[in-house]
Design goal:
By secondary structure, the chain is mainly α. The chain has one domain. It contains 3 helices and no strands. The radius of gyration is 25 Å and the shape is elongated. Its main location: cytoplasm. Keywords: Bacterial flagellum biogenesis, Chaperone, Cytoplasm. May act as an export chaperone for the filament capping protein FliD.
Length: 116
């Protein structure tokens, strides 16, 4: 089996796994599996030489197309994780304000009008 075919096979597995939406509790396992596949692919890429036989061209072209789709999907996942983190931070801050309502500056007794 050529290195280009092996790269294509790993990239297809990565694509299949990245396209799946994980259940909310399985996100960590999903990310760990993606990291494992990325490391496998990185090892295969590091063993490939600069020149590629002509027969491996279609394999590499297909792997590049799948890589573009995987990259887009991983960016979507990253933005969803960032949104979840921001939502959690906001929820935590709201909880703190509710528990300790006297820590924030009070609006009571503030003068709105100005001196003449």
């Amino acid at each position: 089996m050529s290195k280009a075919y092996e790269l294509l096979r790993i990239t297809e597995r990565l694509y299949d796994h990245a396209v799946k939406n994980p259940a909310p509790g399985d996100r960590d396992d999903h990310i760990n599996q993606i990291e494992t596949l990325l490391k496998e692919r990185e090892m295969v890429l590091s063993t490939m030489s600069g020149t590629v036989p002509e027969a491996d061209g279609p394999f590499l072209k297909k792997a590049a197309e799948l890589n573009t789709a995987v990259d887009a999907r991983l960016k979507e996942e990253m933005s969803a994780i960032k949104m979840d983190i921001n939502r959690l931070k906001k929820k935590r801050e709201t909880g703190r304000r509710y528990e300790n309502s006297y820590s924030a500056p009070s609006v009571d007794g503030a003068f709105i009008d100005r001196r003449n």
